[in-house]
Amino acid sequence: MIKNKPRIVVSSCLCGENVRYDGKPVKDFLAKDLSKHVDIIGVCPEVSIGLPVPRDPIIVVRGEKDIKIVNPKTQEDFTDRLEEFSKTFIKNLKDIDGFLLKSKSPSCGVSGTKTYKNENGTGFLYRRYGIFAKNIKNLFKYYPAEDELRLKNPDRLLWFLFRIFTLSKIRSTEDIKELKEFHKKHKNLFSLLGKSFLKRAEKILSKEKDFKEIKDMYRENFLKSSYRLPSSKRTGKSLYKAFKEKTFSDIIPKPVLNIVEKRYREANKTLKKQAN
After folding, report:
1. Contact 239, 229 (CB under 8 A)
2. Which of 40, 80, 211, 268 has its CA 20 to 30 A from that of 60?
3. Residue 136 pLDDT > 50
């Protein structure tokens, strides 16, 4: 049994709930595979504001100052309702370590959501984020926030898991001695974050301040330093090599690492097929 599990917000459709606009289930098993090892808070912003299942699809439209969410068939505007729900839901979250959201969704999409020029769904502009994901980026800046398609990349999945499990362990420390011991134990792993992270961490841990303030500073340092995938040029090794050397085994439980290993095997098979 995993003590002090990470707490993550997950799109309800990824948890197996039939809440999508077309009423069809999502065929992705990552959330199910992780459910034994993390605490999940499910959410569907669109159903939460009263939209039915099934329903007309809604889209993201570029507004004068911000994005809008509309029904392209009727031009009905859902922006204010989704904005209000998103801000209220996110502000009430406590002890959260990350977000796993539905790709391409007008509410939950992290990066691949289509944005249009016109409310009738014409004039495609670019792919960015949905309105719920936008509020996460604003209110939980630097926190792990991914979608199921991006996490098909095994490096990105490994890094996402490393971040949420590390954040949960930082969150669970109860005094400065425990936090210092945690940092010392994982110093080799944290070298992947760069020398600047280690220098700042040592400086933070040496401060004579209230423990809560020190822990907040340490967590902020980790969040900013781990925000992007590390390059092998900076760290001297690839994430896959670090994975094979069991660098992450003290942070991420073995059953969860098995999920990553399966993704690496699938990726290697794909590369071999492409090479042939």
Report:
1. yes
2. 40
3. yes
- Could you give the number of structural domains in the chain? 2
Residues 227 and 145: their CA atoms lie apart, in Å, by 10
pLDDT value for 222: 98
Identify the domain boundary among 117, 133, 151.
Answer: 151
Answer for the pair 115, 127: CB distance below 8 angstroms, yes or no.
Answer: yes
Residue 12 domain-assigned? yes
Domain that holds residue 80: 7-151
Same domain, 20 and 78: yes
Closest C-alpha to 39, from 89, 95, 102, 101: 95
pLDDT at 271: 61
pTM above 0.90, yes or no: yes
Distances (CA, A) of 66 to 72, 108, 127: 18, 16, 15
Q: Is the per-residue pLDDT at 1 higher than 60?
A: no
